[in-house]
């Protein structure tokens, strides 16, 4: 049978994204200097590519809230091309996000009707249709929108995929006090509180249609058309074990006792999430206003919604990622819940919203889910900017390394990443700047490499080790001088690895709209 795939203008022409290095800006770090949480400012496709090598297979739970393509997210496109552009925006990002997921991980994507069904098919291709878990319905509004032309939309979707559905299981939701209050101990049973349930069923069986005698001496049979739900012998065993309740006077129809200690530690989540359970848009708005009242982010998500996602999809200490961080909700909730996190945001709201919000979280702010998770403050995060493109054009149009923005250390790290090496300079051996597979190293230099220098390195390189040397120029014949040493010229040797000089792949996405008070009130009615 021929495989059916979603097609659109531009599919198959995904960019060869430059795997840039991340530049640590310690001036914007906050809290515990040992914390490894990461707030990254930059185009999220470039940032995801920057993370891919180091974090592939390490992220337990991904939540993203991409632009919904409602007609206001893009400029200068007609409807048809806008749809194709949106899909072209999503595919390369989802490809990398899948690579980042751990084998026991899951991804949760917020979306609405405009692109939700196309996104489902696209995700089927990327994550595998067999790994689709469910579509969750989130009730985002609590009242009708009276000026709606057709139907007032009251919900968004969350598409849920596992990396490997056959082994992935969601966590249970914690039991509530209301649920536990249904259990009482009317007979002072030493096994603790219990609730009771009917012991008859509608599926009739003559074997299970027998007479019993209550402790008071009353003789009973099931009502017409019903029978007991267990055999006569097992019923007596339950009575002997004090697992049958006949009422305070021992005269009632028997009911099976179910002890609180025997029930699951939590409850299985359903696919309908009401605003009473996980909050609505107005809740999210209030949470954002608490740390930035002058610039209200238009499409935040309530902290309780993200808490539900992270409860089901991760455990304390797990790594959580959001590459459309927006106002910072995912990172804030992950921090409060004891998860490690990586957040990526391109716009200025990385500075105006995410940074102050996460600082407030470290300081122990008590909004959102803080009280429910007993958040007291602590931890910290590090701030990163994307490095500029490695290769630029000189005045003659020739590709050259941007030595004005790249010092030797940055150059070594960037070339190592381009060649698939993890940059990790050896403190004793200067030419071991990075390592790839076992016993394979890289050395990047900005100096001319001579045969004498290469011979000196070769004397210290065991036969069982391999070395890649990248230099701007070198003596003729060095590339074949030693069997276990590969000498390549830069930048020529990396030109075909990716496209350079592109600082964003946002496809003309404008800054997220900010609504004034009146617009917010209209949108939420």
Protein described:
- This protein is α/β, with parallel strands linked by helices and 525 residues long.
- It has three domains: 22-171 and 267-386, 3-Layer(aba) Sandwich (Rossmann fold), CATH 3.40.50; 177-262, no CATH class; 391-497, Trna Endonuclease, Chain: A, domain 1.
- The protein has helices at 44-55, 79-100, 116-128, 177-181, 232-240, 275-278, 281-289, 303-313, 329-336, 349-362, 408-418, 451-460, 517-524, and strands at 22-24, 30-31, 38-41, 59-64, 101-111, 132-139, 155-162, 173-174, 194-198, 200-201, 212-213, 219-220, 227-228, 244-245, 255-259, 266-267, 272-273, 319-322, 340-345, 380-386, 391-393, 399-401, 422-423, 434-435, 440-444, 466-471, 485-489.
- The strands form seven sheets. Strands 1, 2, 3, 4, 5, 6, 7, 17, 18, 19 and 20 form an eleven-stranded mixed β-sheet that branches.
- Its EC number is 2.1.1.72.
- Pfam families: N6_N4_Mtase.
- Belongs to the N(4)/N(6)-methyltransferase family.
What is the number of helical segments per DSSP (H or I, 4+ residues)? 13
Distance between the ends: 49 Å
Count of folded domains: 3
* Coarse shape: elongated
Assign a percent range to the helix content: 25-40%
Q: How is the biggest beta sheet arranged?
A: 11 strands, mixed
CATH level-1 class of the largest domain: Alpha Beta
Radius of gyration: 30 Å
- Mean pLDDT metric: 89
Question: Can you count the beta strands?
Answer: 27
Specify the CATH homologous superfamily of the largest domain.
Vaccinia Virus protein VP39
> What percentage of the residues does DSSP assign to strands (E)?
15-25%
Low-confidence regions: 74-81, 508-525
């Amino acid at each position: 049978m021929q495989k059916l795939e979603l097609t659109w203008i531009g599919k198959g022409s995904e960019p060869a994204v430059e795997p840039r290095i991340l530049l640590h800006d310690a001036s914007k770090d906050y809290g515990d200097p040992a914390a490894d949480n990461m707030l990254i400012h930059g185009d999220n496709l470039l940032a995801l590519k920057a993370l891919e090598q180091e974090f592939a297979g390490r992220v337990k739970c991904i939540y993203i809230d991409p632009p919904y393509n409602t007609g206001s997210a893009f400029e200068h496109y007609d409807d048809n091309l806008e749809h194709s552009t949106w899909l072209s925006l999503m595919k390369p990002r989802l490809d990398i996000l899948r690579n980042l997921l751990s084998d026991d991980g899951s991804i949760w994507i917020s979306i609405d009707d405009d692109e939700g069904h196309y996104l489902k098919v696209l995700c089927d291709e990327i994550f595998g249709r067999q790994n689709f878990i469910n579509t969750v319905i989130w009730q985002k509004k609590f009242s009708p929108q009276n000026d709606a032309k057709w139907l007032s939309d009251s919900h968004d979707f969350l598409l849920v995929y596992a990396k490997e559905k056959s082994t992935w299981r969601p966590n249970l939701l914690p039991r509530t006090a209301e649920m536990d209050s249904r259990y009482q101990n009317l007979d002072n049973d030493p096994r603790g509180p219990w609730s009771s349930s009917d012991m008859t069923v509608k599926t009739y069986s003559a074997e299970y249609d027998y007479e019993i005698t209550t402790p008071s001496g009353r003789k009973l049979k099931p009502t017409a058309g019903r029978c007991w739900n267990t055999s006569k012998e097992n019923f007596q065993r339950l009575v002997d074990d004090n697992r049958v309740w006949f009422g305070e006077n021992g005269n009632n129809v028997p009911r099976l006792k179910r002890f609180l200690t025997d029930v699951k530690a939590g409850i299985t989540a359903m696919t309908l999430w009401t605003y009473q359970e996980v909050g609505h848009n107005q809740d999210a708005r209030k949470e954002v206003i608490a740390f930035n009242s002058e610039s209200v982010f238009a499409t935040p998500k309530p902290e309780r919604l993200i808490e539900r996602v992270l409860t089901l999809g991760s455990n304390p200490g797990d790594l959580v990622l959001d590459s459309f961080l927006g106002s910072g909700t995912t990172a804030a909730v992950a921090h409060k819940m004891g998860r490690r996190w990586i957040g990526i945001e391109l716009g200025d709201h990385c500075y105006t919203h995410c940074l102050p919000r996460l600082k407030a979280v470290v300081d122990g702010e008590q909004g959102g889910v803080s009280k429910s998770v007993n958040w007291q403050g602590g931890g910290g995060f590090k701030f990163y900017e994307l490095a500029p493109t490695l290769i630029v054009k000189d005045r003659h149009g020739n590709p050259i390394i941007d030595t004005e923005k790249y010092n030797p250390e940055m150059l070594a790290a960037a070339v190592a990443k381009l060649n698939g090496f993890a940059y990790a300079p050896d403190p004793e051996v200067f030419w071991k700047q990075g390592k790839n597979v076992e016993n394979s190293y890289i050395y990047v230099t900005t100096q001319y490499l001579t045969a004498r220098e290469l011979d000196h390195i070769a004397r210290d390189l065991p036969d069982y080790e391999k070395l890649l040397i990248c230099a701007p120029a070198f003596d003729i014949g060095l590339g074949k001088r030693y069997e276990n040493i590969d000498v390549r010229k830069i930048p020529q040797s990396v030109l075909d690895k990716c496209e350079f000089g592109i600082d964003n792949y946002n496809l003309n996405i404008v800054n997220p709209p900010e609504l004034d008070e009146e617009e917010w009130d209209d949108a939420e009615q």
